[in-house]
Write a structure and sequence with these properties.
heterodimer; A: about 230 residues; mainly alpha; 2 domains; B: about 220 residues; two-stranded antiparallel ribbon; 8 helices; about 0% strand
Chain lengths: ~230, ~220
């Protein structure tokens, strides 16, 4: 469930598109949005990216809304907080509760922050929803990011999914035995779960190392890059 | 909480990215040295990174009824030291941004600084200091995890307060700290207890490994 985004990234109309373009579009738009910090431009970027995601990449609108919903809820809370508890300029609106007021400069901050996140978030979404992680890492590799970092990241990416399955199994086993029945027992179960995963991960790392060694691993994982069709 | 995509103004994104890059570069240099000495540690590093990622996706039961997750940076710092943890945290944060939409690319620098540098560094100092002072490693790991988690949020409040210094830096810092203190102190205690449970089992099952990593207290080794 949690990794819907990974599934979507592998199954949309832009999965096979050149990852360099996608990476550069995302980064350039993010930088431009941050530098301009213009309310109209933020809305413009939000619309453009949403159209790209929904119409060009053909991602289900429900998944996109789900992707937006949690950060947006959080964003609204933090911006309300910025609006009511900050600032020292002139009072522009009085709520009448505990003397909480909205001031001109805090209002300005809240609106600009809100719009900035609104503009930036779909840019991240565009990259995250259309590009599988392995391709992003391959791009970073050719862009001279240290090899060791890329390799650890690739191995990590593989391992995460193995762990997720194991956690799922273990958690179900604990739940059927009322492991999360009370507050104290849920702490105990969670501790047991986490430490077991760690012990398992040590065994896994050993197995992984052996399997890599036996296949002639010399510190480089070759990635298949299909030749461009002309 | 990670600072979300676009939340910080441009110049602060840049500043935090530059600061974090320097420290992460040092961490990569350290990792290279470790891997050159013992080539088989690469898999261990990768798997521990995955463990950090998984740990932060486990929900911690909290007193207030809301759920949050442990950062796992205290445990990482006690096991591998702060420089290596910073590199692992960088990858973890990148994955969280791309796989879970948690955090972001422009705020990556700021998040690395709070979760990958300040938190682990404090946790490591606390852990080493306490074990040197002959406190048992179980108690030391509790305070390392507790303070590592707490200081992560102090660093985040600091970053937010510099970015939004209204009416003044001090007031903004106090404002952010109060909000985080209410939610984070119980969570930090929770993370401390959880780490102690994990630590106890590790000591029980893999004492040799902990000894090899130099993570046990001198009187327990």
């Amino acid at each position: 469930m949690k990794f819907d985004m990974d599934y979507i990234a592998h199954n949309n109309n832009l999965t096979e598109a050149n990852p360099y373009y996608k990476l550069f579009i995302t980064i350039i738009l993010l930088v431009v949005t941050l530098v301009l910090d213009n309310l109209y431009f933020d809305v413009f970027i939000f619309l453009v990216m949403s159209i790209l995601i929904l119409a060009v990449a053909k991602i289900n609108y429900k998944s996109y809304l789900k992707f937006l919903s949690i950060p947006m809820a959080f964003l609204i809370i933090t911006c309300l907080f910025l609006m009511f508890f900050f600032g020292k300029g002139e009072v522009i609106y009085e709520t009448g509760i505990f003397g909480i007021v909205v001031r001109a400069d805090s209002f300005h901050y809240a609106v600009y922050t809100f719009m900035r996140v609104l503009g930036c978030f779909p840019c991240l979404g565009f990259l995250a929803l259309t590009t599988p992680i392995a391709k992003i890492l391959h791009c970073l590799d050719t862009l001279k990011v240290p090899k060791i970092l890329i390799e650890i990241a690739l191995l990590m990416y593989n391992t995460i999914f193995i762990f997720l399955n194991e956690i799922d199994t273990m958690k179900k086993a604990q739940e059927t035995r009322l492991g999360y029945h009370s507050y104290i027992s849920s702490f105990k179960s969670l501790g047991a779960l986490a430490s077991t995963i760690f012990l398992r991960s040590l065994d896994k790392s050993e197995t992984l190392q052996h399997s890599l060694d036996s296949r002639g691993y010399t510190g480089e994982l070759p990635v298949y890059v299909p030749r461009k069709e002309k | 909480m990670h600072i979300m995509e676009g939340y910080l103004p441009g110049q602060w994104c840049l500043i935090w990215i530059v600061i974090s890059l320097i420290i992460v570069a040092y961490g990569i240099y350290q990792i290279k040295k470790i891997v050159d000495e013992t080539p088989e540690s690469k898999a261990l590093l990768a798997v521990s990174g995955a463990f950090m990622f998984i740990l932060s996706s486990l929900k911690l039961p909290s007193v207030t009824g809301s759920c949050s997750h442990p950062c796992g940076n205290g445990l990482g710092a006690a096991l591998f030291g702060p420089a290596v943890t910073a590199v692992l945290a960088t990858i973890v944060l990148l994955f969280q941004a791309i796989l879970l939409a948690h955090g972001g690319l422009t705020t990556l620098g700021a998040n690395i600084f709070s979760m990958g540098i300040v938190g682990p560094f404090i946790a490591w100092i606390v852990y080493k200091g306490l074990t040197k002072a002959n406190v048992s490693s179980t108690i030391a790991i509790f305070f390392a995890a507790f303070l590592g988690d707490l200081l992560t949020y102090v660093a985040t409040s600091f970053q937010l307060a510099i970015a939004f210094p209204t009416p003044s830096f001090g007031t903004a810092l106090v404002n952010f700290l109060t909000i985080f203190a209410i939610t984070q102190v119980p969570l930090a205690i929770g993370e401390g207890i959880l780490t102690v449970i994990i630590w106890d089992r590790l000591k029980e099952y893999k004492p040799k490994l902990l000894d090899k990593l130099g993570a046990l207290a001198p009187n327990e080794a």
